[in-house]
Amino acid sequence: MKRLFSFLTPYRVAIAIALTLMLMELTVELVQPLLIAYIIDEGILKQDLSVVLLWGGVLVGCSVVAFAAGVTNSFYSSHVSQSLGFDVRKRLYDKVQEFSFTNFSRFPTSSLITRLTNDVTMLQNTVFMGLRIMMRAPLLVIGSMIMAFLINPRLALVLVITVPLLILFLVGIMSKAGKLFKKVQQQVDHVNNVMQENLVGIRLIKVFLRAQHEMIRFKRSSDALMDKTVSALRLIEVTMPAILLLMNVSILVILWYGSVGVTSNQASVGDVVAVVNYAMRMTGALSIVTMIIMVLSRAKASGDRISEVLETDIDLIDKELSENRVIKNGNISFQNVSFAYPESHINVIKNLSFTIKSGERVSIIGATGSGKSTLFGLIPRLYDVDDGEIRIDDRDITAFKLEHLRQQIGCVPQEVMLFTGSVRENIAWGDEHATFEDIQEAAKRAQIHDTIMTLPKQYDTLIGQKGVNLSGGQKQRISIARALVRKPTILLLDDSTSALDMKTEAKLLEALSELSCTTVMITQKISTTMASDHILLLDDGILLAEGSHRELLETSDLYCKVVESQVGKETFTLVQRGY
Amino acid sequence: MFNEVTKPFRYKKRSLEEIDQANSKAKSKKKAQNFGGTLKKIWHYLAMNKVKLSLVIVMVVISSSMALLGPFLVGMGIDDFIVKQDTDGLIRLLWILAIIYVIHSLATWFQALWMIRIAQNTVFTMRTQLFNHLHKLPIPFFDKRQHGELMSRVTNDMENVSSTLNSSVIQIVSSILTLVGTVSVMLYLSPLLTLITMLVIPAMYIGLKWITKRTGRLFKEQQRNLGELNGYIQETLSGQRIIKTFSQEKKVIYQFEERNERLRLAGFWAQTFSGFIPKVMNFLNNLSFAAIALVGGVLALNGVVSIGVIVIFVEYSRQFTRPLNDLANQFNSLLSAVAGAERVFDIMSEEEERKDEQDAVDVDELHGRVDFSHVSFGYEKDEDTITDVSFSVEKGETVAFVGPTGAGKTTMINLLSRFYDANEGVISMDGRDIQTITRSSLRSHMAFVLQDSFLFEGTIRENIRYGRLNATDEEVEKAAQLANAASFIRKMPKQFDTYLQVDGQGISQGQRQLIAIARAMLADPKILVLDEATSSIDTITEINIQEALSRLMEGRTSFVIAHRLNTVQNADQILVLNNGELIERGTHQKLLQQNGFYADLHASQLKEKMISD
């Protein structure tokens, strides 16, 4: 929570102004009854119109001042609360961008989204309210207490007992409600999650006719959200009648003591009236406190959730010795590398060693789940290895600054992810300084230029979540263009030609050979491995065999089987004979 | 420091037209819904809880009258008993008061208790209906929307509705009650002074109108911007892997900031304007005090009204404006709720997937004969993706679609499953136009393994069972066995009960496809669609499941899309598509003999490569 308060520091001036303005308003409000009383007593009762006019004018003047103060306060309060929301969102987003994948596994996407929007809105509203009215109610309570004491300490004694009791009660409720609201927010996460899954998987749901099933699932989640909200709000709503009862009982006590006091001449009737009046005012103010309690306990729950993200330790960072280093050669070597995903103890990569020379084109081939994509994630340091060392340019990759390392690697992931925006933006995403010529060149190399030119608005056609329908292969090639546009020293293609037909793939591979970068490709296709200098055959996280296509045909049975499975027996024999 | 002092006045000002323009741009071409209409719809939901709602109103009446009765009796007690030192009378009165107070508290408690339930019920119903409606929308709707933006409507916008409903109804009813009570007393005391007090009402109306005209739109803009931000967050979080590998964090942070700034701007003005409301009300309130004092003073001087009346009147005019003030505040909060609700109703008024034709029937049994007759289709109006395609598939046959990327293969599947309907021509099954078959019964005979094999958060078992919800554990495991998925599943920490996270960390793309195949196995359909079902699976594994697949395909009509031609060689028919046209058809052997496009493809795929090596 402390951390959250520090978000307010940049706005201390604005906050001070807002609070001062609020106090001004409050003062006018408190003075007003006195003015009115004066007008009645001195003006109307004494039938003196000039007093009415003069003090009536003062009353109007005060109102104008209060109005001006109030309006200005609105400006400052919303400035502070909106800027606070802005800052918190920014800091959260910055932090999330620093997250490693291990960090991500702790927070599901939907939960991060709720924290960044819903939870921040809660905080924002709390601050806005705080600067405008929150102080009023407590001030009114305290002011009334003091006034009551000044009038008759004996009668006011009752209040001294009840008010602390009330505060204790409220604090208790608040901490309990805070926990309940935390559960509410967690459930919002869940609702959000079901919603997200349904949006992403909508096709699958439709073809399997599972809308009904999903509706039930959502209803269950939404139902739980309702129940949790209801139980949190109900707890809060108990406070109001409880406060009413307690305060009203103290009024009864005051009346009784007052009556005793009047009999024994220790209090005047006027005293009793005044103290009862103040007690009633306090009751009114305390009912506002209920609302404040609710807002505060929600804010606390949301604040905790925000802090949780902000306080997460990033576990993948630059080493002290890391520097901005240019990858000159682009040779890669793995030395006894082992790796297991966080929270799983099964090594996906087992004591793996190999070397890729600079400028080489290397294919990685292997069974489903043999660790190919995992291996790719290790090169740009999406994860750090558990054991062993990965070297680029004969240097441990941790010697490169993370950002710098990744900047020089072009990567095409297996699952194509395009962002909402135009084709041009999506390709330029790889390198923001790319000129339109660069973009077109990359598109040509990726064999997508011609397709783009047939789109309605060519390079300005919208794609991504809101855009036109592109086929799987088209998306893949845009994703390749995105990697090429950065002119990388190392190019990683993760099964990126799977949706391409052979002709297009051949052209693509040819275009790639014009580049001087080290290219590593994960593939299932023999056509790709044949066009490579070197092939790594992976099985269950272990390097089973390596060599050129020809070498592997002679040394590896598994490789032969793969080739045979793809080209058929007759052709395979031809191949073996050396055609 | 100076900067901080002036900053609140330096936010970019925007005219109503600009805001309207921005709001309407995002809302496609549909006409704006009005405030009253939306409110009526919300009311319609609230009214579903009629009994409870009337109970709440009864409770509000009770608690309001108890709130008025209490102070009155206290005053009486002081005057009649304390001043006169009548202890017995006082004790009696204190008892009565105690009872009143207890009733007051109980009524307050019950009204809140029920109201919370009603409000949350309303929100629950709206949220669930929104979700259910989403499932009735056609695929094109989802193709054009950002997921995060839609998600924001379910959470952030509903939150606005929820927080308003909790308190508004009670507040509005009790304010109106107090208002009516006070005005009656005032009228009784002095119609003339009442009239003067009422003079503020037109001013209030004008002031409120001026403000709410702005806040309404601003709230909407704020919610829209929040939705857009949500969309951006969702997208960039889903694409985290690519952002990291491209080390583009700075860029997305920068783009995030632009959206964040837009939200701040909209939020600032929405909040500032809405903050004006109580201030304006207070101000007018004070003016009316002054007016009463002045006019009252003059009247008293002339002896038209008694001084006592003026004194009481001043008190009442205070009481009169307080509920008005409350109403204004509630109105404000209502505006924000309406802004949220409107975005929810927007989706609900979105046109559903075209209803099944009137004469559409459920088909219990399907043999699986499929005919395409002169079918044309385009995603965009003026551009055909499929042009005049005709072919027939006999029951149990396997058909492969082959062709370069973008030739329209996946589109064929979209048409077959009626995600989209053909613009021209007829697709029929067992001789019956599929438009005369209900979508649900049509799809119930089909199973799909799609290009993106999507897994839900849950266990592997649950994910496979998605194919047939009532399948037993044994059936699930058997399907996995058949799909060759069992071997890797058994290596997982908890085997079939391994819990998959949303982003499926630690499970490879190929393994996902195997699970998807198991899912289709379990569904046991008449028509099977495999859209690049094995593209991420290595060829050895593929050989292994090929056997299982051919077992699966036996007796079923199967449509296969694959780039690796060897996977389609055994198909009964190969349909070669190019630029949306069906250019060749036949078996593998026949097509090779034809020496056309397919033969070319085949050659480029095998021999050319082989020999050039």
UniProtKB/TrEMBL annotation, chain A:
Membrane topology reported for the UniProt record: Multi-pass membrane protein
Methyltransferase among keywords: no
Chain ranges of the ABC transporter domain: 332-565
Taxonomic lineage of the native organism: Bacteria, Bacillati, Bacillota, Bacilli, Bacillales
Organism: Jeotgalibacillus marinus
Signal peptide extent: none
ABC transmembrane type-1 domain boundaries: 16-298
Keywords on record: ATP-binding, Membrane, Nucleotide-binding, Transmembrane, Transmembrane helix
Name used for this protein in its record: ABC transporter ATP-binding protein
GO MF annotation list: ATP binding
Transmembrane segments: 12-40, 52-76, 133-151, 157-175, 235-258, 278-296
InterPro entries, A to Z: AAA+_ATPase, ABC1_TM_dom, ABC1_TM_sf, ABC_transporter-like_ATP-bd, ABC_transporter-like_CS, P-loop_NTPase, Type_1_exporter
Record's subcellular location: Cell membrane
Superkingdom of origin organism: Bacteria
CDD domains with a match to the protein in the record: ABC_6TM_Tm287_like
UniProtKB/TrEMBL annotation, chain B:
Keyword Transcription assigned: no
PROSITE patterns, alphabetized: ABC_TM1F, ABC_TRANSPORTER_1, ABC_TRANSPORTER_2
Protein name per the record: ABC transporter ATP-binding protein
Keywords: ATP-binding, Membrane, Nucleotide-binding, Transmembrane, Transmembrane helix
Places the protein is found: Cell membrane
Origin organism lineage: Bacteria, Bacillati, Bacillota, Bacilli, Bacillales
Transmembrane segments: 53-74, 94-116, 168-189, 195-212, 287-314
GO molecular function annotations of the record: ATP binding
Membrane topology: Multi-pass membrane protein
ABC transmembrane type-1 domain sequence ranges: 55-336
CDD domains per UniProt: ABC_6TM_Tm288_like, ABCC_Glucan_exporter_like
Keyword S-adenosyl-L-methionine listed: no
Domain ABC transporter: 370-604
Top-level taxonomic group: Bacteria
